[in-house]
Amino acid sequence: MSWSSDWRPRRVTESMEHDSIEHDSIAHKERREMSQTATESYAIPKRLLLLMLLYIAAAVSGLIAGQGVIFCLLTLIMVLAVLARHQAGLWALRLYTLVQLALVSFLPYILDQGDSVATGPNSLKITGFELKVPDWAIFSFLIGFCMLQVWIAFTPKVKAFFKRKMNFNLMQ
To answer: What pLDDT does 171 receive?
Structure first.
């Protein structure tokens, strides 16, 4: 009688192999689902990315021109908070949007206060060319930009971007 290296009955060995293969496939499937949810949940909405790029361009141009430096730095900090998916970044984005909407809404009233208020820039110098722009075109652009900001900041897809799956709160 010779002793074989496999002393277990044949049926038990086959069922164990089947169980280990099934367990490996379940673990692989769970890892794949977790990686898919991680990449899907971090995907920034394209419209929010476009708005952040516009904010970055405006803040950098303001820093280069030396106008409203503190406001430009606060805008860049807000952009970093939004890209880091902080809930405070969403609040700052919405507050920023509402303040701009209020200012644009009061702009015609402010400009109607008389000659003591400057009418604002109505000539633009772009690469050496001077471009005359009427006030209604500037107001139309500002109102359209504010409408775009409100649409982006209060979209459910943008709000869902700030919902994190992991919570590092140790007290819960």
So the answer is: 63
Structure tokens at 108: 């015609």
In DSSP terms, which residues pair with 110 in a beta bridge?
Answer: none
- Chain segment 131-163, per-residue pLDDT in tens: 777 777 878 888 898 999 999 999 999 998 987
pTM summary value: 0.64
Residues 169, 160: contact at Cβ < 8 Å? no
122: helix, coil or strand?
Answer: coil
Distance CA(133)–CA(16), nearest Å, equals 79
Q: CA-CA-CA-CA torsion for 159, 51, 111, 74, nearest 10 degrees? A: 80
Helix (H) or strand (E) holding 145: helix 135-153
